[in-house]
Amino acid sequence: xxxxxxxxxxxxxxxxxxxxxxxxxxxxxxxxxxxxxxxxxxxxxxxxxxxxxx
Length: 54
Description:
Layout: H1 3-29, H2 39-53
């Protein structure tokens, strides 16, 4: 094998690894708001805050 073939396969494996990591991140982030907090947890926090402070 030439160096270019080895480089291509290394790149392909690295690219696949990064894509898999990013898809895992995006699967988890769908239920998170812009602050990175799960939506349910954030709404519960807001409800509790409103009860205490309003």
